[in-house]
Amino acid sequence: MSLFLEGVVIGLAVAAPVGPIGVLCIRRTLAYGRASGLVSGLGAATADAAYGSVAALGLTFVTGLLVDAEAWLRLGGGVFLVFLGVKTFLSRPAERPVAAGRGGLPGAYASTLALTLANPSTILSFAAIFAGLGAGSADGSSTALLLVPGVFLGSTSWWFVLSGATSLLRAKLPAGALRWVNMLSGAVLAGFGLVALSGLGG
């Protein structure tokens, strides 16, 4: 049970810092409703659990492949973030949440899953954390069975809280304010994408 709870804390700690996925979750909750924001978060939580599994089971060859492909992953993720940022910046807010756009909830899930998987530094973070907990080798499979579900639950809990709080805030914001939210979140998303692309030359 203590390992499971440690996994929950790790999942919360990895998910909570506000990054492109957090901004995307907030924006989708405001535009399409709580379900879209929560499903977007679940895509990130799934990626966290997948990377956590690789790190906990000591699958170093998978880690190596991901690190070797970092430039291509960064390129794809950066371009996608810039695209999302520009699209969000130019979009007009509805007076109330509308149905999710093309792809619906499956598209929201798949996009954040892909964006999170496109950041190999996540798996390095898990590898460092799990190594300190004795779950960074192949004989740590029993430990992984407890840690990884905890990571998924912790990450999911964060997205549940974030989408819920944003949904409550949505009812209090006038349409004019939502336009500024779209512009700000679009600029932030595009900024994250540009930062990712600028690192390709390093």
Global outline: globular
Give the ordered list of helices and strands: HHHHHHHHH
Number of helices: 9
Total strands: 0
| End-to-end Cα distance | 43 Å
Task: Estimate nothing, just give the exact number of structural domains.
Answer: 1
Assembly type of the chains comes to: single chain
Give the structural class: mainly alpha
Query: Which whole number gives the mean pLDDT?
Result: 78
Beta-strand percentage? under 5%
**Low-confidence sequence ranges:** none
Please give the share of residues in helix: over 70%
What gyration radius follows from the Cα positions, in whole Å?
17 Å
Biggest beta-sheet profile: none
Molecular structure report:
- Helix 2 (20-32) packs antiparallel against helix 9 (175-198).
- 79% of the residues lie in helices and 0% in strands.
- The chain contains 9 helices and no strands.
- It has one domain (2-75, 90-174).
- It is mostly helical.
What's the quick description here?
With 202 residues, this protein is mainly α. It has helices at residues 2-15, 20-32, 34-56, 60-68, 70-90, 104-117, 121-132, 141-170, 175-198.
Q: Tags for this entry?
A:
9 helices, globular, mainly alpha, 202 residues
